[in-house]
Amino acid sequence: MKKRVEKSSKEKVDKADSVTDEEPPKTADDYQCSGNLEQDFTKLCKLMGVKDIPSVKIKQSSSLESKMTTWSSKPCLRIELENEDHGSVKEVKISGWKMDEVVLQVLSRILPSLSNLQCLHMWRVGLTDYTFISMRNTVSLCSNLRKVVLEGNPLPEQSYHLLIAEDSMLTDLSLRNNHIGEEGACLIGSALSTVHSANKNLLSLNLAFNSIGDAGAIHISQGLRLNRSLLCLSLSYNQIGDNGAAHLAEVLGPFALTHEEIVERRKLLIKGEESTMVQPSLVSLADSHERPLSVRSSSSLDRLNKSTKNPTKKKDNPKKEEKPAAGQAAKKEEPKVAKKDNKVPRIQAGKLAGKDNNLLVSDQEDTFVCQRVDVVETVIRLLDPGIVHAGGKVIHPGNTCLTSLNLSGNKLSEQSLKVFLSSLEGQGEGGLLRLSLNRNQFPSDCDTFLKIQEIMSLRDPLKKTLSGQVEDEHGEPKTTNEA
Description:
The chain has 483 residues and is an alpha/beta fold.
């Protein structure tokens, strides 16, 4: 009996040792990313059966070393660290080799786990329409990723606009050399803005070296009409002529709203009037004498929120229950309050509280701002305070948010320059600070171009004339010591 017990105990110990020593290999689905790209990438590639696993190389701090390691004959991932910690990857660069679907799946698992990732650079990696969608979904999961460089990856469906959807958090996007034509430009223009939506985060968009042409430039100009976030746009070397350039120029200065834009503007105005019709009554309720002053500051906001959710409750109309005989007087007073609110700015809404103007003015203003935040975000484009009515048209002041426009290497003549000059002269505060028109089809000494140069030199924040500003062959600023 003792021998049997000893054997059974030994067998249990042996089984335990075998379990600890020979753990079954984890599947890719079970693998938990650690945030260390080098370690995770190698392990996941092995689990997913990748034969030739690309190497991971860390970008050196020395400029000389970085230049020496910019080219590799074998596929590799180049990463840049925020600090010495290998879990602080801030940039991932993949260039010059085609990624298959398996490697892309590995990256889709790893990239969202990199909390410091800020830039993803993919040049000529052989993306397809299917793998692009996968990559786009991965980008949306990276919490701090703000810059994406996707160059040399032509897609048949030209669905690059998905990267700048309304919910996109990207601030910098480069789509150079992707064979983007009219269709792709149309989709990008709609992503920048329509009468119903607009991208609110993208600051820089580079569309250089594509085939946008005049038709595509017109679509881009439509997207600039109501976009109020984009600061820098490059359309250099896109075969754009005078027709497309003129549409871009017209958007920069005052322009007439279209029928669709006017209809949407009226809808927004009606919504704004309806919200201001409701809010005076809410403020008067907050100033009622049901509670002491010391309590009202903490409870009035709660009561206001409840009343907005359930406007049909009896608490909303206490005056009607107390004085039914004064119904006619109440009807006369309500429209007066509504009219006053339409004329008074939002920040002065606390004055409508009643006789006791000193009660909770700050709380009431905060309530009004909170209740109108959504309205302000939607009407800021079509209810611009600079909009005027002239000649039977509704004139918008134009896009004064765009500060840099690059149209170098296109087919512009002096004809379209005149439209740019007119728009620049019509811009008020804000507007372009840099306009690059190099290598087009007009003489550099023509009067219109010289006038544009003069205007832009006065707007340059560094007070440098365009004649003294050196640019590279693509029309981009170049750092040099030579004049």
